[in-house]
Specification:
The complex is a heterodimer. Chain A is an alpha+beta fold. Chain A has 10 helices and 7 strands. In chain A, the strands form 2 sheets. In chain A, strands 1-5-7-6 form a 4-stranded antiparallel β-sheet. In chain A, strands 2-3-4 form a 3-stranded antiparallel β-sheet, with no helix packed on it. In chain A, α1 packs antiparallel against α2, α1 packs antiparallel against α4 and α9 crosses α10. The termini of chain A are far apart. Chain B starts with 8 loop residues before the first strand and ends with a strand. By secondary structure, chain B is α+β, with helices and mostly antiparallel strands. Chain B is globular. The chains are: A alpha+beta, B alpha+beta. At the A-B interface, α7 of A face α1 and β3 of B. Chain B: InterPro entries: YpzH. Chain A: Keywords: Membrane, Transmembrane, Transmembrane helix. Chain A: InterPro entries: YIEGIA.
Chain lengths: 294, 63
């Protein structure tokens, strides 16, 4: 079989692009996508993205500049992916005992869109190298790109920008406190006892001004509660608003008091889980980067 | 699912008749023991949360 260099470029480009999507498709505690159908959707879209990226190079070299307009079509398509993800995750969120919250969902949807562009880029670079250089150089570039995309996809987690430590839960009359931070008013004695027995109090302390604002974001706080409840289980049911994991902020110094109600009451593990909560892109603020700051 | 009332006082339970009144359904009880029991029942039925205002009055609110 005699294949032209362009065909080789497309084949290798599509392959590396597809593998980079495969590498970015991980099923972890976020449990999405888990089943084959969900995975097939994203792998197919990844394959299409890889094809677009790989074909762009021969098209350009052959001076087929109109072919580039197809890339804008692709961008449109992948924005649609983001809408689709947002919509379905928001619908499913209504059935969760502890909600993800719109900020977390937006972050996930954005990641799905972004990954497709990374696939296009990987395929494009690989294909370009094959055409300009040789096939093994192309495979090498593709491998490097796959490794880099793996690094690019991971953001910060809460442990890097905050100090997470245990706090003591206590009741003062009907008021529930974690250390000195007021959480909520609990009316029934039975619920007070259940919260004290089953709950874990956690204090999250911001390390600087930037993280203080990030931690104040309601979406970020909901993400903490959701992640902790997903991993540790949650001691509650529908129609039981008294048993709700909750977080309140100390207005003086920006610390966050958190009440968790895990099935598995293991304080150390709970702290590790909270440290691993991703910092949401929509919650990041950088007031320290302001140039004319005093 | 239908419409749900949120951030509204769904019911008031009290053993002090002179302290409560107004728009929400009020349940009068005899003593602290009954107050606790009645608030517990209403909490489950209304899927709300019982909050204590003082030793004599509780309100049920859905959040």
């Amino acid at each position: 079989m005699n294949l032209t260099p362009y065909t080789w470029a497309v084949i290798i480009g599509v392959m590396t692009g597809f593998f980079s999507r495969l590498r970015m498709l991980r099923t972890d505690y976020r449990q999405y996508p888990t089943y084959l159908h969900g995975q097939v959707i994203h792998l197919s879209l990844g394959f299409i993205a890889a094809g677009l990226g790989a074909v762009a190079v021969p098209a350009l070299l052959e001076k087929e500049y109109t072919a580039i307009t197809f890339l804008s079509l692709a961008a449109q398509q992948f924005r649609e992916v983001r809408n689709m993800e947002r919509e379905s995750l928001s619908k499913l969120d209504q059935m969760e005992l502890v909600k993800r919250g719109p900020s977390y969902i937006e972050g996930i949807a954005m990641a799905f869109e972004g990954r497709n562009y990374l696939v296009i880029l990987t395929a494009f670079l690989t294909s370009l190298t094959v055409v300009v250089g040789t096939w093994y150089l192309g495979i090498l570039v593709g491998l490097v790109a796959i490794v880099i995309t793996g690094v690019l996809q991971s953001g910060k987690n809460l442990g890097q920008i905050t100090e997470v430590r245990p706090g003591e839960l206590r009741m003062e009359e009907a008021g529930l406190y974690v250390d000195d931070i007021y959480l909520m008013n609990v009316g029934l004695k039975e619920n007070r006892q259940r919260i004290l027995d089953r709950g874990i109090g956690i204090i999250i302390e911001p390390k600087n001004v930037d993280s203080r604002i990030t931690l104040a974001n309601a979406g970020q706080r909901q993400a903490i509660l959701h992640d902790a409840s997903t991993i540790l289980g949650v001691y509650r049911d529908t129609g039981e608003p008294s048993l709700t994991p909750i977080s309140k902020r100390d207005l003086e110094d920006g610390r966050l008091g958190v009440l968790l109600l895990p099935e598995d009451r293991n304080e150390e593990r709970a702290i590790r889980v909270v440290q691993k909560v991703p910092v949401l892109e929509s919650a990041v603020r950088l007031p320290e980067e302001q140039p004319d700051r005093a | 699912m239908g419409t749900t009332l949120e951030k509204k006082i769904l019911a008031v339970v009290s053993d002090r008749k002179e302290q409560v009144g107004g728009g929400a359904p009020v349940f009068y009880v005899a003593d602290a023991q009954e107050l606790e029991e009645r608030a517990f029942l209403l909490e489950k039925i209304l899927s709300g949360m019982a909050h204590q205002l003082d030793d004599h009055t509780m309100i049920i609110v859905r959040h």
